[in-house]
Amino acid sequence: MSTFDWLNSEAFTAFGQHIMWSDMVGNIVGLIALALGWRRSMGTWPAQLVSGAVLVAAYASAQLSGGVGKQLLVIGVAVWGWRQWTRGTQRAQDGSIAVRFATWKERGALVAGTALGTLAVGSLFTAVPELSWNPWPDAYIFVGTLAAMVAQARGLVEFWFAWLLVDIVGVPLAFSSGLAFSGLVYVVYLALVLWGLRDWWLRSRQTATQQRPALEGAPA
Question: Which of 48, 89, 97, 216 would suit a FRET pair with 172, their CA atoms being 20 to 30 Å apart?
Fold first, then answer.
């Protein structure tokens, strides 16, 4: 049995739903990645890489091309985000990743990019039915995930709001696609997102407080 075949074999059955190894393992690692992101740990990015690689097999078995594309995108953006946290994102005084709310310009760019991206990807999925049997929800999750990860890489609190919006569609889509474990994990994601949002929100206020004395002491 190949690795792909094993990943897409049944792990167990729960409530009449067949749970695949790829669906279970990939989403558990995804939960770990989200928890590490909450803690602002660099480990969030390699965990997202592993989760994305395993979930490619899960979505391929369910013939969800949009899901496969999303996970390939997750892998690519995780590499970029890892680089951002290593070299680009601002650090707090204690050396940890600094978090903040986006400026209105950054929010506008995220919203506009997500809307235009969803229209473009949804139109592509509609024009090429082989890519997705449910084009608009797939496109919404595909682009919403990208927006969330970009915001995370930049240390923006809006990262958590983006994940909330993805979860709203991701939960019913996963259950309707037969990926029951993914659906259950999305529910757990929701709890982690709410806790992470609270933590980053409070830390963004601490960052602003720390930066204010430095700005006040700067020469005019």
Answer: 48
